[in-house]
Specification:
28% strand; 336 residues; Uridine Diphospho-n-acetylenolpyruvylglucosamine Reductase, domain 3; 4-stranded mixed sheet; globular; alpha+beta; 3 domains; Uridine Diphospho-n-acetylenolpyruvylglucosamine Reductase, domain 1; 8 helices; 5-stranded antiparallel sheet; Uridine Diphospho-n-acetylenolpyruvylglucosamine Reductase, domain 2
Length: 336
């Protein structure tokens, strides 16, 4: 492992916040996690950082940032129908996507273009364009940092929810994910429930295929989301709020054009982006902190925004949406 003191994490967070941590540890092998646990590192202030694409550092971090860099993909089982693929936590999500394209494996193609590392995917239960990663996860493996015991949690045991999992709740700060095991289909099938994806396929005159789906999703993403190599952001900053059916119907009386999606039984999911846009925030900026002009769900750092300016902007958006709709937005991004 590599250990650095008083280390800037600017190149390890997509918001490009130039803050330092007291110690930065690059974990180069899964067994090193046990060593760190035995040293008591996980009993002190720490943060496990993947690709830094879902975090906003608001100040220098007084603890240890732990960053997995170990990689690898291994086919564990294979049938005529599917493949069980074990992927290391430090593997780039994009590399997994390319592997699936190369080997014609179906299930996560709608999640193309999401930045970050594989180990972070189940924590957040990443999702896009009608698909959540939980739909393709067989189990998650790692080490309980509080007991030094290895764990292997099945899909059900991970308690996946909308942008949620056991790793954000019961096991928060108690485990280190080392591998994610995906069950990927060898049989051709697609999730085409997202209107913008279908519209792009039609516009290009394309029939569904693994390559065509990924190409179309990347075009749709790039038309709405900033290039993180040029503009600092963390993708969707807010979760889509979930209301009861009764709450939604009451709100719909005042705002009949509200976009909605099915949620768990008796509930409806609203479009946070639409609420923010209706509250007048799309395209607005306070100096270098702004709401992206092509997607109101995205808060951006246009260059020199401070963490406090992003936090202030976030709160202003939450307040104005609540004032107009009586709905409280919750950040999807980890704010440290």
């Amino acid at each position: 492992m590599q250990i650095y003191e008083n280390y800037s994490v600017k190149e390890h967070n997509t918001f490009k916040m130039d803050v330092c941590c007291a110690r930065f540890v690059c974990v180069e092998h899964p067994e090193e996690v046990r060593q760190l646990a035995k040293q008591g590192l996980f009993q002190s202030e720490h943060f496990i950082l993947g690709g830094g694409s879902n975090v906003l550092f608001t100040q220098d971090y007084a603890g240890t940032v732990i960053h997995p860099v170990f990689k690898g993909m291994e086919v564990m089982e294979e049938t005529d129908d599917d493949v069980l693929l074990r992927v290391a936590a430090g593997e780039e999500w994009e590399h997994l996507q390319q592997f699936c394209l190369q080997h014609q494996l179906y299930g996560i193609e709608n999640l193309i273009g999401i930045p970050g590392l594989v180990g972070s995917a189940p924590v957040q239960n990443i999702g896009a364009y009608g698909v959540e990663v939980k739909d393709s996860i067989a189990r998650v493996e790692g080490l309980r940092t509080d007991t030094l015991q290895p764990f292997a949690l099945s899909n059900t045991q991970c308690h996946f929810g909308y942008r949620d999992s056991i790793f954000k709740r019961e096991l928060k700060h108690k485990c280190f994910i080392t591998h994610v095991i995906f069950r990927l289909s060898k049989r051709e099938h697609y999730t085409l429930t997202y209107k913008a994806l279908n519209a792009e396929l039609d516009r290009c005159g394309m029939k569904p295929s693994l390559q065509n789906i990924t190409d179309c999703i990347l075009r749709v993403r790039n038309s709405k989301l900033p290039d993180i190599s040029k503009i600092g952001c963390a993708g969707s900053f807010f979760k889509n709020p979930v209301l009861t059916q009764a709450e939604f119907e009451q709100l719909q009386q005042t705002f009949p054009d509200l976009v909605s999606y099915p949620a768990e039984e008796g509930h409806v999911k609203l479009s946070a982006g639409q609420l923010i846009e209706k509250a007048g925030w799309k395209g607005r900026r306070n100096d270098d902190a702004g709401v992206y002009d092509k997607q109101a769900l995205v808060l951006v750092n246009y260059g020199m925004a401070t963490p406090q300016e992003i936090v202030s902007l976030c709160q202003q958006v939450i307040d104005d949406v609540n004032k107009l709709f009586g709905v409280t937005l919750a950040p999807e991004v980890n704010i440290l």
